[in-house]
Design goal:
Oligomer: homodimer
CATH topology of the largest domain in chain A: TIM Barrel
CATH class of the largest domain in chain A: Alpha Beta
CATH superfamily of the largest domain in chain A: Metal-dependent hydrolases
Protein name (chains A, B): Cytosine/adenosine deaminase
GO molecular function, one term (chains A, B): metal ion binding
Largest interface: A-B, 70 and 70 residues
Number of helices of chain A: 17
Shape of chain A: globular
Strand content of chain A: 15-25%
Number of domains of chain A: 2
Number of strands of chain A: 17
Keywords (chains A, B): Hydrolase, Metal-binding, Zinc
Pfam family, one (chains A, B): HUTI_composite_bact
Radius of gyration of chain A: 21 Å
Distance between the termini of chain A: 46 Å
InterPro entries (chains A, B): Amidohydro-rel, Metal-dep_hydrolase_composite, Metal_Hydrolase, MQNX/HUTI_composite_N, MTA/SAH_deaminase
Chain lengths: 431, 431
């Protein structure tokens, strides 16, 4: 297939009248449109205004999709314990499948081709199947909670780890290696030391399996961990093995200098979720400091109940705007950096190789945008335009691993209407 | 015309299966869908998921639309003096007409039915004509700059005020009273005392003419004013007559207690522009304190070069999220308040009576939204959904004064393609 448009190869390279040629699951070549049209006259063709690498949502809760808007404007602890966890705890296999499918549909419809997905305690297999059906690339895992958790969610430590291992055997590397496994403790507060150390041991037993958890999102959380362990949260995670190049920590809003040193020294990945941090009043993560230290910072939308969108363009824009206003510096976190966070940095966090740029030999995860709207006119700088002016509705085409998942704005191979109707019906039981 | 859907009457009242009946330029009745369908069987009908009051953009720069993306990620003073003001200064009548038209198109396409528009020094008549052509409701005026301004923009005080008066005679109350005049000094830094006092005198001579200016947006501005006048900015504006129930001050990010007292005592309106304040690193306006004091706070997108969208839903969401994170309080500025800021508070600032709610006898400024998308599924609370999940692309229908401006997502009566092409061509001269 041959895709034409202004081609954003990466944050530093744009081809004004370019084209991308895809062969199988990878990009064959990228270059000038006219030259490639001459060279590949028989290739099936799609024309766009902008062609870009698929975006990476590096901290997502697809299975919370039925709770979009369930608890807006509420106190954080009420939000979690009165709304979100009860919803997760009450969801059966069908609800989980519908929620995950809806989440993946929203992601591919708005330009996310890879996600790092934090599932729930039960029915994680439903989300793996949904990812396989929709075709998204994902690093994902069943959630571990073995202490201080509401009744239906708290599990026996050994059983939870054993179920995780079953899922690894079944799904790690599944669907043409589009789906990989991350052992996923919810956060230190709801996981015993045995659980956290067990997560590390389990991840180490399987090549390519990673670890994904929440860390230092809010002040109450880090106080609880410090009270129980005598350590700051990141030090505790480091102590039990949950730092390193295969670990993704979502949020990291509240860290001190010594914790940042640990993150940098261990090569731990951080996912910044600006809209969620704003809506839940968590605070402003020290993203610029992390980047200065060489820490890999990716971007995530978090879940629909705390955002309330999975649009990755909204998050790029928000990441830049939030750093500018909090630093009182209008040059802070420019478009190129936001774009890197949402592409190559996300790919690095997720552990997928040759992903996040439109380069020959790299994975054919590509999006095509149409920007023939008043709100996207005029275009001065296309990279800046992607970050500050366009959004998910401009995405007309989404390809993962060379497979077209969204074509001319329509999802391929999934009955989207049926999923939406089912989601609305299921959602009416939550409040 | 009869519009059906979940009807958001105002921030406190929602009719789940409702309808709005429009007669001429006003709303005739609002109620249950089935009852109104029985009562008005022959009315032309439109069906939506949500029917809501048209939104009010209370601080807009439509004529900066050609500069969308012109100077992202730059220092504030470079942004203004190296990019925005030179662009405005170089624009001829045709560029001004195209820019304003593009701005009004973007506004009506994304659900804004009324704007308070800050034009430029020259060719203001072109924007008035554009507003008349597109059909938007607007309070707007030529900009006054008579000191400390770049060459092509600085004008003789008397001549500038005389031209303003000409425009008042020509356009105040024009287009069926959809368009009204606001005398528009740019800000205290670029306006002499004579100019500011002249603005007040001019506004007082014409019934319904208001005053619109920028105030206390950034620290450099208020330092300059204090150095030159010996007063804090709002005190200076009060001294020269630029406070009161007919005055709209955009931004008010940096005010002290005594200035807030003045704003409250004089009934001066404040327009909050959260995305702009974030992108230009201006700071976080004390919106909650203003509201606590009874100050009327409206919402605005500011201009495309500092946002980069005129989508009013983005601004409602941003207003809520920015207060939550800056106050570290997730209940701060809830959806209902954001919605009031973008509707009735904006109408009050603009001075249009019976505007901003869907009530019998009120102005027929109405929008219809379709939300049959993955990203807008499910819906729990419709008001909260409007603020946190929907955006301008969901707007399928826009009516101002009973006239349909956008129908089934298509602008009525304007060659939108031609405007966009012209805008892109003109825009290429700016950088």
């Amino acid at each position: 297939m041959l895709l034409t448009g202004t081609v954003v190869v990466d944050s530093a390279t744009v081809i004004d009248e370019g084209a991308v040629v895809v062969d199988g699951t990878t990009i064959e070549t990228v270059g000038e449109r006219d030259e490639l049209l001459d060279r590949y006259p028989d290739h099936e063709r799609r024309d766009f205004d902008i062609v870009a690498p698929g975006l990476v949502g590096s901290h997502i809760h697809s299975v919370q999709s039925l709770g979009r808007g369930i608890a807006d404007d509420t106190e954080l602890l009420d939000w979690l314990f009165d709304h979100i966890l009860p919803m997760e705890g009450s969801m059966g296999a069908d609800e989980m499948r519908t929620a995950a499918t809806l989440g993946y549909l929203e992601l591919i419809e708005s330009g996310t081709t890879t996600c790092i997905d934090h599932l729930s305690v039960s029915h994680a297999d439903q989300a793996f199947e949904a990812a396989g059906e929709v075709g998204i690339r994902a690093l994902m895992g069943k959630v571990l909670m073995d202490q201080a958790s509401p009744e239906p969610l708290e599990e026996d430590t050994e059983e939870a780890l054993a179920e995780s291992e079953e899922l690894i055997r079944q799904y790690h590397g599944a669907f043409g290696d589009r789906v990989r496994y991350a052992v996923t403790p919810r956060f230190a507060v709801t996981c015993s030391e045995e659980c956290l150390r067990g997560a590390r041991e389990l991840a180490d037993r399987y090549d390519g399996v990673r670890i994904h958890t929440h860390a230092s999102e809010n002040l109450g959380e880090i106080e609880t961990v410090e009270t129980e362990t005598g350590m700051r949260n990141v030090h505790w995670l480091d102590e039990v093995g949950l730092t390193g190049e295969d670990v993704v920590l979502a949020h990291c809003v509240h860290t001190d200098e010594t914790e940042r040193d640990v993150l940098a020294e261990t090569g731990t990945h951080v996912t910044h979720c600006p809209s969620s941090n704003m809506k839940l009043a968590s605070g402003v993560a020290p993203v610029l400091d992390y980047l200065d230290r060489g820490i890999n910072v990716a971007l995530g939308n978090d879940g629909p109940p705390c955002n309330n969108t999975l649009d990755p363009f909204t998050e790029m824009r928000q990441a830049s705007l939030l750093q500018k206003v909090s630093q009182l510096e209008s040059t802070a976190l420019p478009a190129a950096t936001a774009f890197e966070m949402a592409t190559v940095n996300g790919a690095e966090a997720a552990g997928f190789e040759q992903l996040g740029k439109l380069k020959p030999g790299w994975k054919a995860d590509v999006i095509g945008l149409r920007t023939d709207t008043s709100r996207a006119t005029p275009v001065h700088d296309v990279l800046s335009h992607l970050v500050f002016a366009t959004h998910g509705d401009d995405v007309a085409f989404t390809m993962v691993d060379g497979e077209v998942l969204l074509d001319d704005g329509e999802v391929v191979g999934v009955d989207v209407e049926a999923v939406r109707e089912q989601a609305q019906t299921y959602a009416e039981q939550y409040s």
